[in-house]
């Protein structure tokens, strides 16, 4: 990544012919095309920015000259903390801090021309299968979905062959733990380790693997007052939330570990960051933002700070005021996310129908 000074950035912005129209509209607020809100180009320290306000996601975007755009897209898509995610998530990541005319089209071309993505993309589409109604969860980590990925080949240098994955229903916040084996005791230890960080959920949805249905796991659930839910037999889409994450995580690992496949377990942490930072289509927000009530300082924010030499300095507040502000932000963000989830759920169910029988009362019902 080339170093760019604020002076070089100013000069490049002024010399870039693709930004002439942006400079012409400085100080002239305009409504966003096809979206709610207003955009306005402003000059701050003689550096051109695009300010978006009047909607649910206000932003302060640095306008990037053409000569530096490839650096931004490379960091947002190719880096270890980006994970070669798809077009929509990469675009959201870029636009969280940067803007230029035609940014969406440029990101789309960049992702479609990525050599690693082309060689590791899915070769065919999976046919849609019946879906039923899942209750919307509005409390973080009240219900979680859990699954196991593996065995993974090759075995990592640390002897890991599996990954225990967990996704929160309310925020889509994921966790992943590499495992040497999937004995009940080891799986239970990994779950307790996760719960020690995020809290003990009320409900846990798993498949019918022996690790989750054994007497040991039932005793762990009893001690933690944890209600166990199991999926319909031979129907993994019943746990579709975590299954979808598993597919994304495996693709990200495949792309990042192409040269050193036996180091796959070392990439899990950075790739989890990449997933948590990207807004989800179903909620409209990043999992990190829904859980913690703030935008994470990631590679895009750091690059913007490096180029502009500007660092946000929020006003000093008392602990009490901080807690009140945080609670208000979380309530507003979660309300918006619930609305997006309801719309997403209605859209999905309107195109997919079907029925599945239920064998016992603790299964998820599909209708």
From TrEMBL:
Under the heading InterPro entries, the entry gives:
Integrase_cat-core (IPR001584), Integrase_H2C2 (IPR041588), Retrovirus_Pol_polyprotein (IPR050951), RNaseH-like_sf (IPR012337), RNaseH_sf (IPR036397)
List, for all copies, the residue spans of the domain called Integrase catalytic: 136-295
A single GO BP annotation from the record? DNA integration
Record-level Gene Ontology MF annotations:
nucleic acid binding
PANTHER family recorded for this chain? Answer: INTEGRASE CATALYTIC DOMAIN-CONTAINING PROTEIN (PTHR37984:SF15), PROTEIN CBG26694 (PTHR37984)
- Identify this protein by name: Integrase catalytic domain-containing protein
């Amino acid at each position: 990544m080339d170093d760019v000074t604020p002076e070089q950035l100013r000069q490049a912005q002024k010399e870039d012919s693709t930004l002439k129209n942006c400079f012409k509209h400085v100080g002239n607020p305009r409504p966003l095309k096809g979206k709610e809100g207003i955009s306005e180009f402003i000059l701050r320290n003689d550096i051109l920015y695009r300010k978006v306000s009047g909607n649910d996601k206000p932003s302060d975007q640095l306008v990037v000259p053409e000569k530096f755009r490839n650096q931004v897209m490379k960091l947002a898509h190719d880096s270890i903390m980006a994970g070669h995610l798809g077009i929509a998530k990469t675009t959201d990541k870029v636009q969280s801090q940067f803007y230029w005319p035609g940014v969406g089209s440029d990101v789309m071309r960049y992702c479609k021309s990525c050599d690693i993505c082309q060689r590791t993309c899915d070769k065919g589409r999976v046919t849609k299968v019946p879906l039923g109604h899942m209750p919307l969860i509005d409390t973080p980590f009240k219900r979680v979905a859990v699954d196991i990925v593996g065995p993974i080949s090759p075995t990592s240098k640390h002897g890991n062959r599996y990954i225990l994955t967990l996704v929160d229903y309310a925020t889509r916040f994921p966790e992943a733990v590499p495992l040497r084996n999937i004995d009940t005791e080891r799986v239970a230890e990994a779950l307790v380790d996760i719960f020690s960080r995020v809290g003990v959920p009320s409900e846990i949805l798993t498949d019918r693997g022996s690790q989750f249905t054994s007497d040991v796991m039932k005793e762990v659930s009893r001690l933690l007052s944890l209600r166990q839910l199991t999926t319909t037999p031979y129907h993994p889409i019943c746990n579709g939330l975590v299954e979808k994450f598993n597919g994304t995580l495996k693709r990200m690992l495949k792309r990042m570990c192409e040269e050193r496949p036996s180091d796959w377990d070392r990439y899990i942490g950075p790739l989890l960051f990449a997933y948590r930072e990207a807004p989800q289509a179903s909620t409209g927000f990043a999992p990190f933002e829904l859980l913690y009530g703030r935008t994470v300082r990631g590679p895009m924010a750091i690059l913007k700070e490096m180029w502009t030499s500007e660092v946000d300095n929020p006003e000093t507040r008392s602990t009490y005021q901080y807690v009140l502000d945080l609670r208000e932000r979380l309530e507003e963000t979660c309300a918006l996310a619930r609305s997006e989830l309801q719309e997403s759920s209605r859209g999905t169910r309107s195109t997919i129908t079907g029925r599945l029988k239920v064998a016992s009362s603790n299964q998820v019902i599909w209708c």
